[in-house]
Amino acid sequence: MFAVIVAGGTGERLRASAPAPVPVKPLLEDATGRRLIDRVLDACTSCRGRIVVSGPVPLPADVTLVREDPPLAGPAAGIAAGVGALPPDFTGDVIVLPADLARPEAVVAGLTGPGVVSADGHLQPLIFRAPAGQLRAACSGNLVDAPVMRIIRALDLPVIRMSAATVADVDTWEDALEHGFTHRRTHGHTPGKEG
């Protein structure tokens, strides 16, 4: 199985709600220095490969970094970019996840077979598992600024039910506080230590 982790958004809601400048959302840290993206990557360590769709971010050497074309073309284009980075001969399943999940281990554990997640009656189109061949076909064509539901409809996946707490994400500073991502260090600057 491969994991495609979509992290290409601007994080506008987080930046707008934070009381001080924050790094790009995937690089938010908890008190131990563990980043939001690290939690998602760690939840996918059993996968044959991990592909992150993002702008330039420091990642482990065994993680493939790709970018949607053009940048900021939306999550559907991001998924397509990640799928394009799969080995051509890969025929297993692919799990697709957003990079801002607060409890990614629980989400990955619940993706036991192909399906798209629904949380308390609300479809979560950025959280699904699908066979690679079907996903490649669903990602064909121009997906720039297209809704992710276009991919989901083409896949025709069964629904996997999870709770809203399981699929909670970090969209705002309030979410960051709730889930322990309160470290405000930004690149080259540590609060309280003026240079």
TrEMBL record:
Coiled coil: none
GO molecular function per UniProt: nucleotidyltransferase activity
InterPro entries for this protein: MobA-like_NTP_Trfase, Nucleotide-diphossugar_trans
Signal sequence, start to end: none
Residue ranges occupied by any MobA-like NTP transferase domain in the UniProt entry: 3-141
Domain of life where this protein originates: Bacteria
Record's protein name: MobA-like NTP transferase domain-containing protein
Classification of source organism: Bacteria, Bacillati, Actinomycetota, Actinomycetes, Mycobacteriales
